[in-house]
Amino acid sequence: MSAEKVTVYSRPGCPFCMSLRAGLQRSGLAFNEVDIWQDPEAADVVRSIADGNETVPTVVIGDWKAVNPSTGEVLSAVAEHAPHLLPA
């Protein structure tokens, strides 16, 4: 089963989040960004992926999860797990 969305967990002022956001926006990939400081459940998700830490950006695409991935890593994961989400 393929993923239905790309979720990027972030927080305000995070330079790694800003870099990933800019790269994904340049690529044209649609993604859902969630601020872990505003959403306690999102913070729980990140801690479950990042060994108890609130390390962002953390990206989830279906069963694929990564902490601080590059734009290229995210696009490769989308191509593998949710190719229908790739920009035209």
Automatic annotation (TrEMBL):
The record's InterPro entries line, in alphabetical order, gives:
Glutaredoxin, Glutaredoxin_subgr, Grx-like_ET, Thioredoxin-like_sf
Pfam family example for this protein? Glutaredoxin
**Glutaredoxin domain residues:** 6-63
Q: Which domain of life is it from?
A: Bacteria
Q: Which residues form the signal peptide?
A: none
According to UniProt, the name of this protein is Glutaredoxin domain-containing protein
Species per Swiss-Prot/TrEMBL record? Saccharopolyspora mangrovi
